[in-house]
Amino acid sequence: YRTDCTKLSDRTTLSCIIPATVPSPLGHYCNQTEAAAHLLFKCPHKADVWNVVDFTYLVTSTGTSSQRLFIDISLLQFSHYDSAPTLLTLTTFDVVGVVLTAIWSPHWIDHFNHIPFSSTNILQIIQTKLHHLHAIAPHH
Questions:
Q1: pLDDT tens figures, 87-108
Q2: Which of 105, 59, 65, 103 has the alpha carbon at shortest distance from 78?
């Protein structure tokens, strides 16, 4: 929702609003301007996560890129995505929601608590949450 309304709390936005807390619009690890697409998809650390998610949990006939995925999520257009066959009880919305949450929280935990963002840890969290959701989802 916040991405769709262009109200995402990225470093570019926050450095303008609260410069004492977020003094620079540059990402902590990659030193690139952190706007919404970069925070969630284009940062190399986040792109690593999405590459595994795209290969493991999402199926698309058209192929995807971080830019395409960002646009599709911003517009909630998932008609050309499906969940992987191992997660048939889950929707694309379920998968994307879990991934966004798994990226968002550690990103800001890193900023405020100085606990490094780890793609490996994020992927383990995603796997655990998706399998848990799959286990409790109604089977058709």
A1: 767 888 888 889 999 998 888 7
A2: 59
> Which pLDDT tens digit goes with each residue over 57-73?
887 766 666 667 777 87
In the 8-state DSSP scheme, what is residue 26?
B
Contact call for residues 2 and 8 (beta carbons, < 8 A):
yes
Residue 96 · residue 123 · CB < 8 Å: no
User: What is the three-state SS of 39-97?
Assistant: HHHHCHHHHHHHHHHHHHCEEECCCCCHHHHHHHHHHCCCCCEEECHHHCCCCHHHHHH
Helices 119-136, 92-113: inter-axial angle, 10-degree rounding? 140
Output the CA torsion sign for 43, 108, 105, 123. positive
φ, ψ for residue 30, nearest 5 deg: -100, -15
Q: Take residue 104 and report the two structure tokens written for it.
A: 């968002």
pTM as predicted: 0.80
| Regions of the chain with pLDDT less than 50 | 1-5
